[in-house]
Structures are given as structure tokens and as C-alpha cells.
Amino acid sequence: MINFENELKKFRPSLEIEDAEEIIYNQDLDDMADVLVSLIKDAKAEEASRHTRIRS
Amino acid sequence: MKCYQCGAELTERDYCPNCGTGVKVYKRIIALSNRYYNEGLERAGVRNLSGAVESLHQSLKLNKSNIQARNLLGLVYYECGEVVAALSEWVISKNLKPDDNVADEYMDIVRNDPSRLEMFNQTIKKYNIALNHCHQDRLDMAIIQLKKVLSMNPGFIRAHLLLALLYLNDGNYAKAKTEAQKSLKLDSGNVMAARYLKEAEAMMLPQDIKNHEDTTKKQVTKDVVRYQSGNETIIQPVRTNVFTRSGSIWGIVLGIVLGIAAACYLILPARIQEVNSTYKKQISTISEESDAKSAQVGEYEQQISSLNADIENLKEELAAYESVDTTGSATVNLMKAVSLYLNEPDNMDAIEAQMDSVNLDNLEETGAAGFKDLYDSFMVLVGAELSKRSYAKGYEAYRSENFEEAIPALTKAFQYDNTNVDALYNLGNAYYESGDTDNAKVTYDKVITDFADTSSASSAETKLAEINNATN
Q1: Contact present, B404 and B436 (Cβ < 8 Å)
Q2: Do A13 and B131 lie within an 8 Å CB cutoff?
Q3: What ipTM, to 2 d.p.?
Q4: Phi-psi category of B21—alpha, beta or left, where left has phi over 0 and alpha has psi -120 to 50?
Q5: Which of A32, A39, A40 has the highest number of chain B CBs within 10 A, making it the mutation to test binding with B?
Q6: pLDDT tens-digit profile of B426-442?
Q7: Which of the residues A14, B324, B435, B439 could staple to B431 if both were Cys, CB 3.0 to 4.6 A apart?
Q8: Cα B194 to Cα A1, B176, B199, B238, distances in angstroms
Q9: In which element (H, E) is residue B235 found?
Q10: B137's torsion region: left (phi>0), alpha (psi -120 to 50) or beta?
Q11: What are the residue ranges in chain B where pLDDT is below 70?
Q12: Which residue of B2, B32, B61, B139 is the best one to mutate when testing the A interface, meaning the one whose CB has the most A CBs within 10 A?
């Protein structure tokens, strides 16, 4: 049995043309490649700090 | 494929030939993105739009620069009626790859038809209004609004789904089922639509299901032809041509023909009759006016004849009055002459002038006896003198052969004194000399008769004999 109130909550207002610019600017465009690059950067930074600690 | 570090073109190796960065994992991510794109493409191909959106989102999460996936996602959104989402994807795609991008064409299609874009915007606004009505528990208003939305944009899946939900809530399961089926026809992978369909079917009574199926079958059989070929059932669309497909054309033609026929056989005779009756009324009015005028002319003619008769009577009366007036004037002149004589008996010139205007002929006709007596009495007193004067004038005129003057003067002279035989004889001579033999004969006869045994009578006899000889 479908609950009308719960089902109604699933419906969101449709995007209007006047809102298009805002939607485009606020869209999160980060992808897995960006995540990978940041992971690699973090890994390199951690390795560099470890070398510094061993030397000291 | 390009290196995420330096942007150089990658080879088959697991590191970048330019900067030496390891790209093994990166390559796997790109491959996975492409795999999702392929999956999305396949799903879109079978109108599983929800599944396609899901796969394409995955693809873009793995690689935001997957232009094909982004463009396809825009197309899928456009097909769902989500125009703004579609435009957003195409704008981002264009931003990521400015050159040689098919998103340009898609955006041009939307941009070059502003009325269509406006229509999409209106449907979106109306949908949002309907959703607002739902939240404020104005469900009837929401249904009306959604029907408007779907009449403008039948491909708006979200509107179909919301309408199906409202019908379900309203207990109108058949309509809910129809809307769910329409949603599934547009988007075969739509889980929400499938759920609503299942719910509607579960809630429908067996009788309702049968009626609904009959209605659906009728719609299907209109569009397809089914027949058995061996063990196979062939279902093919009805072949349509310009005559079968556009039966409405024949309907229009038939309608025009029937309309003309109706105009000829129903409307036109009535119109003609109406015009005829109008003309008949006008004719009868004109003939009535004509009759009235004819009668008036007859009256006028009668009046004219009666007036003419009156004129004749008046003329007669006028003539009578004129004669009376003559008598009156003769009487007045005689009275004046008498008055002159009484006052100045010696002023014969004035008395003569006054008596000249007294005409005894008219007097005799009117028979004024008193006047005659007065005249005779007055002539006893002055007749001889007046006769003498007139005779002198007349004789002188006769001698000078002025007969027009001589005849009246001599006539007056004899009139004043009927014993003046010379005046009468010379009057006969004046008539004779002027050529008036008839009056001359009458005058000579009078001389012979009234004054016999006178020299004038002998001369008159001679003259009369001359006249008789001349005429014989």
C-alpha cells in the first residue's frame, strides 16, 4: 500500500530556466580522477613527512 | 586519453611518456567511465531513461570530461521533459570542450525555437504550481494543473507520475494505471511508475481490469493488424496512405458538400421566400399608395371641373355687373350733364362732352325706364342745340371724307333731335360713301319713310336707286 505523503516527498520541484545559471555554477564537478590526484598528493606529502622524521 | 598531470597524450604503457606519472589506475577509472557510458547508451536505446540517467551519472562521476556521456545525459533529460537539466549538461559540456561539440547543435535546436522553449518553461512552472497545490492539500487543483501540463508537454514523465499518484490517492485506479503506463511507455525503467502500476492493478476490481483492458485493446487494434503465419503471430502496423491516414480530409470534404447541400435545400429556399415576401409587401404598399393618389387625382379633377363651372358663373355675373355698371355710368353721366345744365345752362361745351359718354344702346337693353324719361325730358331742353353742334361736326367731317368721325357725330345729331332730317340724310351719305351700303340703305329708307315729301327724301330715293342698280 502506497503512502501518499511519503510518496509526495519524493517529488521535487522541477528546475526552471531562470535557475539554470545558478545550477550550472553550483554543480559539483569533481570526479574520480580528481579524487585520485588528491589521494596521490596526500600520499606523497605523507611520505615526505615520514622521511623528514626518520632523518631527524 | 590525456595525462591528468601534464595533459600529454598517453600511450598503452602505464606511465606518462612526458612526465612519467603512473596512469594505471587513472586508465582503469576512464575505462570504467566509458563502460558506464556504454551501459547508459544501451539503456537509453531501449527507453530505459531512468537507468540511462543512473549509468551516465556514474560515468560522469568517474570522468567529468566524458563529453559523450554528458551530451547523452542532456538528451535523456530533454526526453524526460527536464529541459533545464538538459541545457545545464550541454552548457557544461560546451565549457569542457568548446570545439567540435555536438552539444552546440542540441542547444541551437532549443534556442532557435523560442516559443517551444517558452512552452517548456510554462509546463515546468505549472508542474511546480501543481506540486505546491499537492503540499497544500488542494489535490483537485493539482490534477487540473497537471492535465494542462500534460496537454502542453505529453513527454513530461514527472507530471505523469505525480498525476498517477494523485489518482491513486483519489481511488481512481484505472486512471492511475493509465498514467503509470504512459510513464512506463516513455521510460520503461522507471521504478516509481512500475510501483504505481502495480499498486493500481492491485487495487482495481476484476471488472475494472476487464473494462480497462478492453479499452486498451481497442486502441491497440486500431493501430496494428494481427494475423497468423504458420506458427507465428504477425503484428504489423496498419498500412496507411493519404486516404486512410487522413480520413479527416474526406470528412472535411464530406462536411463541405453536406453544408453546401443544406444551404441549397434548406437555407436558400427560406431565404428566397423571405426576400419574395419582402418584395410583395413593398409592391402592395406601393400599389396602395398609387390607388390613394389616383383617388386624389380624381377628386382634384372633380374640383377643377366644379371650379371651372364656378368661373363661368362668375364670368356671367361679372358681365351682368359690367352692363349694370355701364348703365350706372350712363346714368351718372346723364345726371352730371343735367347738373351742369342746371348750374350753367349756357355751358353747352361741357354738357356736350358729358353727353357724348352716354350710350343709349346699353340703356335700352337694360331697360332703365326712369333714365329714358329723364333723357327725353333733357333732350327737349338741350337736344336741338346739341344736335346742331354734332351735325356741324359730322357734316364737316363728311365733307372732308373723314367717315369714321362723321358717322358717330351724325348719329348723335339725329339721336339728340329726331327731327333733324339733314343729319339723318347725311348719315346715309356717310355710310354710302364709306362703302357700308347696308346701313346706307337702312338710313335712306328711314329718311324716305319718316320724312316723305321732303327734298331729302327725294334725294334718298335717288341714292337708294343707285345702290340697288349697283348691286343688281
Answers
A1: no
A2: yes
A3: 0.82
A4: beta
A5: A32
A6: 999 999 988 888 899 99
A7: B439
A8: 14, 11, 9, 29
A9: strand B232-237
A10: left
A11: 207-209, 212-213, 215-247, 322-328, 361-369, 472
A12: B61
